[in-house]
Amino acid sequence: MQSAKQKISDMASTAKEKMVICQAKADEKAEQAIARTREEKEIAHQRRKVKEAEAKMDMHMAKAAHAEEKLLAKQSHYHVTDHGHVPHHVPMAAPAPAPVMGHGYGQNPPVVTSVPPQTYPPTRNQHYGNDML
């Protein structure tokens, strides 16, 4: 089921990329029609290339997010249980060092800060949700 969902999501991301590229080409033609000099036409062409590159980058990031969703669904048995047991192969983050205060010796004593506990599973980037479809 997750493979089919990933495939559909990837197709939607690719379709969105193609729409953005098509819009960029139309914008370039409109800008070139208005442009008077060769430099202005070249600027319009470069803007189109930037938009195409951004669309391709967004598509690849979306595909990576879809693959991550599939992997998380496949490996759901690695999640933390009610007993608080975390599998031994999950890396734990080291606590952050205390901030350094003052400029020299004896000015401000070091401050002990509490480090919030790490949550598992790690939170995903919510940018690539259903808004990509």
TrEMBL record:
Residues 115-133 have a biased composition (Polar residues). Signal peptide: none annotated. Residues 89-102 have a biased composition (Low complexity). Residues 82-109, 114-133 are annotated as: Disordered. Transmembrane segments: none annotated. InterPro entries: LEA_1 (IPR005513). Pfam families: LEA_1. Residues 34-70 form a coiled coil. One of its GO terms (biological process) is embryo development ending in seed dormancy. Keywords: Coiled coil. Belongs to the LEA type 1 family. This is Uncharacterized protein.
